[in-house]
Amino acid sequence: MSYRFRHAICNECFVDGEFSQVCKTVKKAGYEGLEIAPFTLSPEPAAIPMARRKEVSRIMRDEGLEFVGLHWLMVAPKGLHVTTSDAALRAKSWQHIHDLVDLCADIDEGHNGGRVLVFGSPKQREALPGVSLEEATKRFRDGFAQVAPHAEQRGVTLLVESLPTNQCNIVNTVAAAVEIVDSVGSPAVQTMFDTHNALDETEPHAEVVAQYFDKIRHIHVNEVDGGHCGTGDYDFKPVLRTLAARNYTGWISLEAFIFEPGGETIANESLRYLQGEIEQL
For residue 223, which of 42, 110, 227, 233 is within the disulfide window of CB 3.0 to 4.6 Å? Predict the structure, then answer.
């Protein structure tokens, strides 16, 4: 099977790399898109001035890259939590998501990247002591419902990411994420699939992707231990084959968690490995 995927990479693997140089390296490696962790732009992402937002957008465009969206949403500023019993903190934390919707839409101006916000952030969403799993999940769901109209208006899609229980105690499977998507009932709230975060799935990953394909708007690829593609033994072919068979048009975005090899090595080795896997479909 021959299929052309759109490949992107998450920028935090370049650690403190200067943004324009990161874009040059990513483009040279062969990627078409860049996914940004907001904390890499500023410790106060909501306060990034419009001039800087436009500059970030222009730099990507000048290097021939599409802006894919934002992930690692809750790293900065510190202290946020979206399911806490502290109503004031909860409101502040969801306001941060509103602000990131605007940041995402502002950066995306002039691009056709897709404008996604990937909501993982395990420590900022998990049920804290004294809060039941049911209540935390409800608060998580209610937050998405509250932000959804704003996201719709700005053309941004919020993605409920499932995380395994070794990272977070709520929304641990794609099925659980889809329950939130269906409950909210907004086109601006969908889900995604991450090979590293699918440990709690009981069905083969390709079957999970096939079952929930209509709700999946984004794919993260990485090894189960967080390394970049090709450094472990994850078999990407079944998932890629399923995506190709369903004519997936979204991004295949590398999100590595082990940065020691360096961003350039991670970018090049991972893409070459995936291209080899795709040739075998």
Answer: 227
